[in-house]
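anyone seen this seq b4? input:
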Amino acid sequence: MEGRNCSIEDICKQQKEGLNMRALIKHLHHEKSSHKIGDHVLVMGWVRTLRDQKKFAFIEINDGSCLANIQVIANSDLENFSEILEKVATGASLKVNGVLVESPGKGQKVEIHAKQIEIVGQCDSSYPLQKKRHSFEFLRSIAHLRPRTNSLGAIARIRNALAMSTHRFFQERDFLYVNTPIITASDCEGAGELFQVTSLKEGASKNERGQTDYSEDFFEKPVFLTPSGQLNAEAYALSHSNVYTFGPTFRAENSNTSRHLAEFWMVEPEMAFADLQDSTKLAEAYLKFVLSDLLDKHLKDLELFNSFIAKGLVEKLEHVIKNPFEKISYTEAVQILEKSSKKFEFPVHWGIDLQSEHERYLTEEHFKKPLMVTDYPKDIKAFYMRNNEDGKTCAAVDVLVPQMGEIIGGAQREERFDILKQKMTASKLNLETYDWYLDLRRFGGAPHAGFGLGFERLIQYATGMENIRDVIPFPRSPKHADF
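predicted toks r here
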């Protein structure tokens, strides 16, 4: 079957069959597996455990495709049996040809009787994952090996599933996927906690005021790693209606907490001809969609966290999916907090930025469900958020969830040119740097809204993991940029 007579399906099948006919362990365990008892199969993976019974051996291997291992039975009549057992150790990579048989053991339906075992990569005795359980803090010190553990392997699959669900959610709703720049001259939040990017060497020239002369720098001006793709996404929303960006963002915030990273991923949809209500509806629909998808397709991985990390996790996620989110204004939230008998570390009064303890009280003790808080004081929110008619608040929304607090921050954007310019001036932003942003209001502007979701916080919430550094492959935080 060649050339133009070959369909896409045929090409995909040929490519799949070309991978040495390798079977993934998740397919061998699947209820509707195409692999039947008595079939010859080829599996490849890494040794988790080895039990040498002299005349035969049990080898558990895992290939990362699912939480479960596959047990391989190696008998003494196997070619080079003794030599293989001398070299096989936890962590070694193997290639196993064998026959799929029913397993008499508990917890597994099938196993493989090996006909041939090839050691692809040996593993010496210094391999640090010899014990069954390790602290997450220790695993962070070997981030290059921690994906081989059950918990971090499951997080990798859950992260992948949530990413794919994110794209499906927006694509099915006709959102355009836009890749916004990682290098930017704009600070979306106006906070100034940015990583600067420069080609200048130490001892670069200074101007007459003692400031760095950027005329010799690569971009001839100060540029930074972006803290958000939102402003750029707005440009595309105001030409393509509904867009989203999903990529890495950066904050040089010196926070050594379980909720902060220096490099993290953001999901940021933006909608033209939309208001705050549209943004809140989209945010709730998005969370329910991706969490429902996760429960449908990765229940085994979630059950690991349900058993060992966060009891009741699966029930919590099901509750989120089945029940409508509560919605209140910031003013109502403050009134609830003030009337509560709870003693807070940070005193509550109108005008404060709600702290994690306030958000958790509202979601865990008062409403006991996810909560949307709208209409925050304009003075504590970003310059681009639309002022409300009361002159005190802005059209902002934070989505708060139990155990986590804020997971989404959104707003209707300020589309009125004069008001936006006044807000930018009051925030002491360089109007020349943001002139392009004002152009979006000068030239055919329109009401628009959107939100930003911290992807790692979503993974934390979905798994119950306490530290955000454990839900990203290679965490970047103050004084930590290894691997």
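The chain has a mean pLDDT of 92. The CA atoms of residues 305 and 463 lie 6 Å apart. kinda curious what u guys think
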